[in-house]
Write a structure and sequence with these properties.
heterodimer; A: 160 residues; mainly alpha; Cytochrome Bc1 Complex, Chain D, domain 2; 2 domains; two-stranded antiparallel sheet; elongated; B: 406 residues; mainly beta; Sulfite Oxidase, Chain A, domain 2; Immunoglobulin-like; 3 domains; five-stranded mixed beta sheet; sulfite oxidase activity (chain B); molybdenum ion binding (chain B); molybdenum (chain B); heme binding (chain B); oxidoreductase (chain B)
Amino acid sequence: MSKQDKFRQQVKSFYNVIVVSFVLVLIIGVLGITYMMDPSAFSFKGDTPNSEVISTTREDDDWDKIENGIHLRTGFKDGEGLMTVVNNCTNCHSAQLVIQNRMSEERWIETIRWMQKTQNLWDLGPNEKIIVNYLVTNYPPKSKGRREALTNIEWFPLEE
Amino acid sequence: MKRRNFVKKTSLGSLAGILGLDIVYGAKIPENYTLLGLQDPDPFQMFHKDKEMVVLNSKPWNMEAVAHLLDDRITPSKYMFIRNNGLVPENIDVKEWTITFDGESIKEKKTFTLEELKSKFAHHTYQLTIECGGNGRSEFDPPAKGNQWTIGAIGCATWTGVRLKDVLKDVGIKDDAVYIGYHAADQHLSRDPNKEPISRGVPISKAMMDETLLAFKMNGEDIPLVHGYPLRLVCGGWPASTSGKWVNRISVRNIVHDGEKMTGTSYKVPCNPIAPGEEVKDEDMCIIESMPVKSLITYPKSGAMIPKGKKLNIRGHAWAGELEISKVSYSIDFGATWSECLLEKPANRLAWQHFKASIGFPKSGYYEVWARATDSNGVSQPMLLPGWNPKGYLNNACHRIAIKVS
């Protein structure tokens, strides 16, 4: 009998361990999911300063500040697809190389293909359309003819 | 605000890309702090350039002069244009620097230290014109792809080094040698160590010319880092891309060198003339060799105002790739009439030549002074843009300055 009791007790304690483990896993799981949904759920707002407050009070240091329609860090014009262009097109070369150029949709795509073929540019996936659209909208070709007139002449009296 | 955080994180990623390494503790960077590696480096200070030079691109570094900065007879370093395809090498150990000669058409592979190269072969100094193949690209219509050079990707410094032909003769090359191709220490923009940013070259006939140097001095001093320290190839009169910087290997090839930027459309123009914007197949493109006839008015700066009755003294330089300049003319009536300038002989073959003129104006008003050079084959610069080509090379249209007489 006492042997049977002992066995029953063992089963019971084993059962308890399983229940406790299950509850623990459940709690961790719920916490984990909550964190995944909203990483700020466990930051205690009273203790830690909110980063949003700092970045808005120090406008000068905004990493992606836009002034007069220009993205200051890169010089790109503000427009639909700006950040996609910044994140995909300024890793290897500067934005200046893009801004200097004026191309049609066809030739921008050709340039992207060339970079993918020879310069280690990755597959842009659905971003390609966004990027090309941004470029042809903001940096379209301008007709210059066979020779342009001299412009932006800074006049000065010549002393000799 | 979530979006801002997301953007911040992604820009940390691209930031890592810029610096080429992961930023340890990246998440802990204080909001107001700019990483040292990201603080805009001052290229003028970094490369000892004049503040009036124009930066076209900061990655890779590309910088050009404006016309009046190129007034010196020998271009000082501070006015010399910068053209890079990749990243300027860092931490160069000049004591450890070697140059290796290899390739199908070399008899036996051979390596020299810089000291060996300098002590074994005779030194020669030449003033050599180096112009970027894409100089003037900004004027093409439809626009051509690449850095939009205006007129300033040209310079004519003195270069001191050993003749490439002396070294090739010492190493020993086979009869089937066709081309030489250089390899260098600069890094590809993607930092992929298996990629070369540029590896171009010249036919054996150009490699064997007296003026083709493996140079270690520019204007009598060590070549500045950004111009190829400690050793560069100098092929005067040819596209500057053939004058490889930071050279550490030369391959003697039994085929036209097929290194980076030798193939496809790079440094090539259509073999036959095409209409602006027309498509050209790769196999119909021909490698640019000698650069075309060109000139630049370097004094005065465009925009000079002079009193009526006073003469205007102009001066500048003219060059014609492998050829000499036979004549430089100027016009103040948009090409209706031309007058000849006083032209000097070159300091040596492949050096630019200086011209000057004293101009009188018939009445007050707005003028443009146009300069037009003619080479020893009788070929002159066009006043309009020359033949369109997909990459916008070889724009040798006349240079002009604006003048007001009042």
